[in-house]
């Protein structure tokens, strides 16, 4: 059995750990198995590039950050658009899948990666997906690998921001990754003790945030810390489509709501206010202990699916059980924070402001 592996989209902790789980299971349990790594995600498959991945390589990957195969974002919307030579990227991937002699392809990635994997399945090719993203927004799984490591990093950052904010009596907005989904902001905001949490799923009212800041100082605190998702939306922007909101912000010289909110909060409360963008630190570094265990479970289970001939699926965590979903059922769907969920209510119940 010849197996290909690729990692696509933004990197995160756990990619190498998942590959290790796949590789060790396959070499341990599938006779005469051969594994090749495809560099740079779907771009490598489009180019027809691959390299051997012996068992010894997988044994070294447990706590290595990033991805040894490299990763490139390849937009889903471009997969079926004819290129200069008249063929589409999808057609090139299918041709190279055959040329490589693959019996199965593992695709490690987020929502876009899963949509492309579903396209390959629809063309009759054997694909198994694995849910990777710090955003935790892949439909059908409770958690994605990489999320818990990022959660540890962001929580630590918020806690560190608190001590410096206390020292100087400041209000600090901490911008967290998450365009469509606010899972990382919500969980890290709670774990880090933020005074306010602003999510893409709950358009925020500036007056409510200003009131929160004022009340925080009135309670005797020396600082106010706000965790804000990069995809946060003002309630006045909510009626507009994403592209329209982008133009509105560009007119202000901004791409997110963070700086705009920081300026208004500072003006209206009189508090010295700063914004800080955590950026790529959230995706880097070695995986946490949780993600190493979780990634191993996902990778091993994916290898088992291949051994059993179960294709056209993606691995998932439901409850405390590793299982799978059909790619066709989850492709193109996002798992977003429910504004009325228990965890949101828990945050509001202890006095955290969500801007509504």
From TrEMBL:
Q: In which pathway does it act?
A: Carbohydrate degradation; glycolysis; D-glyceraldehyde 3-phosphate and glycerone phosphate from D-glucose: step 3/4
Q: Which InterPro entries match?
A: ATP_PFK, ATP_PFK_prok-type, Phosphofructokinase_dom, PKF_sf
Q: Which UniProt keywords apply?
A: ATP-binding, Cytoplasm, Glycolysis, Kinase, Magnesium, Metal-binding, Nucleotide-binding, Transferase
Record-level Gene Ontology MF annotations: 6-phosphofructokinase activity; AMP binding; ATP binding; fructose-6-phosphate binding; identical protein binding; metal ion binding; monosaccharide binding
Q: Where in the cell is it found?
A: Cytoplasm
Pfam families given in the database record: PFK
| Enzyme Commission no | 2.7.1.11
Q: Which domain of life is it from?
A: Bacteria
Recorded hits in SUPFAM superfamilies, A to Z, give:
Phosphofructokinase
Give the matching NCBIfam families: PRK03202.1
Which PANTHER family does this UniProt record tie to the protein? ATP-DEPENDENT 6-PHOSPHOFRUCTOKINASE 3, PHOSPHOFRUCTOKINASE
Q: Which family does it belong to?
A: Belongs to the phosphofructokinase type A (PFKA) family.
Q: Name it.
A: 6-phosphofructokinase
Organism listed in the record: Candidatus Borkfalkia faecavium
